[in-house]
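In this supplementary section we document a worked example of the pipeline. Step one takes a protein sequence of length 140 as its only input; no multiple sequence alignment statistics are reported here. Step two produces a three-dimensional model, which step three serialises into structure tokens for compact storage. The input and output of this example are shown verbatim.
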Amino acid sequence: MNRALFITFLIIFFLSGCNHHEKKDIKSPSYMFSENSEIASEVKVSLNGIFNKNENTFEGSLSINDSTFEKVIFMHKSLLITYEGAKRTVLGDIYFDKQANQFAIIITEPELYMKLTNGKYQNETLVISAPASNRRSKDD
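The serialised model returned by step three reads:
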């Protein structure tokens, strides 16, 4: 009886350490700005999906205001890629802090830029930072 209990405990302990996936559901105040223009406003951003701790990758959905991307894939400090069927689109770069659930997205995709800013894309960098409600840092 003790041996069976011990083996059961070992199996449960081993399996609990094998869970390398973490659910992420991030909805926080976000701020969008551009260094080269007057663009500066709050935006609604949500990121919902699964973070694979072993591969340091995220797969899930992303919403920015009225734009929803059902399948996005990224790694920290890499391209933010969305798929719609077989169509692959690079939205920009993403920097993701998995412990703090913070991220910054640098939008480089012209159509998304124009949709978010209501302006013409002129190779300007558009940054979305979350959580944030303005451009100031905590230390300002």
